[in-house]
Amino acid sequence: MNQLHLNQEDQAMLNGEQGPAVQMAMQILVRMAEIANAAELIDIAGAHIDSTVYIGEAGLEYAEKLASLGAKVKVPTSLNVSGMDEHHWQEWAVPREWAEKAHRQMVAYQSMGTIPMWTCAPYQTDMRPKFGQQIAWGESNAISFANSVIGARTERYPDLFDICCAITGRAPAIGLHLTENRAGKILFTLKDIPLEVQQSEEFYPILGHLLGKIALDQIPVIDGIQFMPDEDRLKALCAAAASSGVVALIHIVGVTPEAPTLSAAFQGHAPAQFFDVSMPTLRQARRELTQAEGEELDMVVLGSPHFSIAEYKQLSALVKGKEKHTSVKFLVTSSRIMTEAAKRFGFLEDIQRFGAQVTLDTCILTTPMLPAEIKRLMTNSAKFAYYSPGLLNREVTFGNLIDCVNSAVAGKVIRDETIWKE
Amino acid sequence: MERIIQAKTVVAGNVDGITLVSNEPLSFWGGYDWKTGEIIDRRHSLSGQIAAQRILCIPFARGSSTTTAVLLEAIRNKTAPAAIITTETDFFFALASVVADVLYQTPIPLFAIAQSDFDALASELFILIQDGKIHIKA
């Protein structure tokens, strides 16, 4: 059992010497640091705030209380998705009362001197942290990406806590902030996974789903990757594993920065557990991501995490000269920054001509935008596939990006099964 | 007959109620309807159960970092579990309880118990928690 040590400035903040907002944030920080058995608090270089997601009155009251006490962040702080697309919510089924409250929550967090990017993929903007930096991030996919792909250090922070760290510039010295807690625990070895499967776009979200389910809160290490994945594949992996499990850090031998070798990934220790990733286990994970039956399709949803410029480019090439079926809606969710860039490069024009719509600032999981007649979804995102049945009460089919485009054109679910055949 | 389990107190409080137990972790975001207290993760073994006012026993919170915000709404709405028992200190649940204390002075009690004690729990038991001790009436 550690006794939490507070330095002079921590103590001053706790005593209210820097105002009531800092005091409230520090009170929560200190109580949580004690619960988490931290020995001390550490400085952070930045924060990402997931508390922006509007859930209900309590979250709004919390935000407005901090704002009314004059809260200001002490470190560069980006904002996660909000509960609405600020400028286009009326094009969808968002109730006015929801929009008004979600907007109040946006205003409250914006008033704290934060950077209103409204994206769940802040790591693909200029707010991207650096290797080794201590940060306090919310949003499970972003936490996993920052730790795994960048090698920045954040514990898996929940909503409401991230903002306390930003306001005080401090975080408890616990979990993934500390080197010794970043060693791998479970070794996932790819066994006879054909290169064409490893190169496929859906390999990473499917692998992530499997990883999360098996690893739960243990740090997984993946060995046997023969094809260097691009960043959007790693993004899909991290988001999937953080949905089906509690995975906040994944090492991939030869790919991620803290895993140049197998031994480095485990910090010289032996794995506590082993798991062979075989084609049957991947097929099973792929099946689990689809809970809809039959070919009926109402809407394709892409962009969880938010679409990057590379994904916009890929989609625009796939849909160029095509038109989606009139009975199917097609939605991309992304950030203002990425979408503005996609517009400048001409990608957006092809996508809109195809009949797709774009929603900014939010996603289908965090704003009640889907009309009631939309019942069957298709997506290439394991995170959307994982959460849609429970959160949205919608049936979902998982497929790759090409499957999604082909299905939208045909007006029914089409999936290329070639690489998944037994 | 009464069995007593020694728990680690995460957030203090004396409480009694009927247990609702699963060995699967749960994400409250997408897994818990704070308006009704129903568990709505259709892949979860407790799907369809109402956890409001029950003593919810799950190993830890899985997945989304929004779990805390959902639990806080449920506490404000009086649709939260009466208490939560986990196998290790769960930061996400603890924060919701601490913030509920700061905002509304209504924290919910949280306890962590050893895995072997957890494995011996079952749903529909009446339990009384007092001073960090869990009394199970057989």
CA-based gyration radius of chain A: 22 Å
CATH superfamily name of chain B?
Phosphohistidine domain
What count of helical segments of chain B does DSSP give?
3
What about the largest sheet of chain B? Answer: 8 strands, mixed
Instruction: Return the CATH class of chain B.
Output: Alpha Beta
Which CATH class of the largest domain in chain A is shown?
A: Alpha Beta
What is the averaged pLDDT score of chain A?
Answer: 97
Features:
heterodimer, A: 422 residues, alpha/beta, Aconitase, domain 3, five-stranded parallel sheet, four-stranded parallel sheet, 14 strands, globular, B: 138 residues, Glucose Oxidase, domain 1, two-stranded antiparallel ribbon, 3 helices
Structure description:
- The complex is a heterodimer of chains A (422) and B (138).
- Chain A is α/β, with parallel strands linked by helices and 422 residues long.
- Chain A is built from 16 helices and 14 strands.
- Chain A has helices at residues 8-14, 20-35, 57-68, 96-110, 140-150, 162-168, 195-199, 203-215, 231-244, 262-265, 279-288, 309-319, 336-344, 347-353, 382-392, 401-410, and strands at residues 41-43, 47-49, 77-79, 136-137, 170-172, 186-190, 220-223, 251-252, 273-277, 299-307, 329-334, 357-360, 376-379, 395-398.
- In chain A, the strands form four sheets. A five-stranded parallel β-sheet of chain A has the order 12-11-10-13-14, sandwiched between helices. Chain A has a four-stranded parallel β-sheet with strand order 8-7-6-9.
- In chain A, helix 5 packs across helix 9 and helix 8 (203-215) packs across helix 11 (279-288).
- Chain B has helices spanning 67-76, 91-104, 115-119, and strands at 2-6, 8-11, 15-21, 32-33, 38-39, 55-57, 83-86, 110-112, 126-130, 133-137.
- The chains are: A alpha/beta (422), B alpha/beta (138).
- The A-B interface holds A 24, 27-28, 31-32, 35-37, 50-51, 53, 55-59, 61-62, 65, 138-140, 143, 155-162, 212, 216-217, 242-246, 288, 291, 365, 386-387, 389-391 and B 10-11, 25, 27, 29-31, 34, 40-43, 60-70, 72-73, 75-77, 89, 91-92, 94-96, 98-100, 102-103.
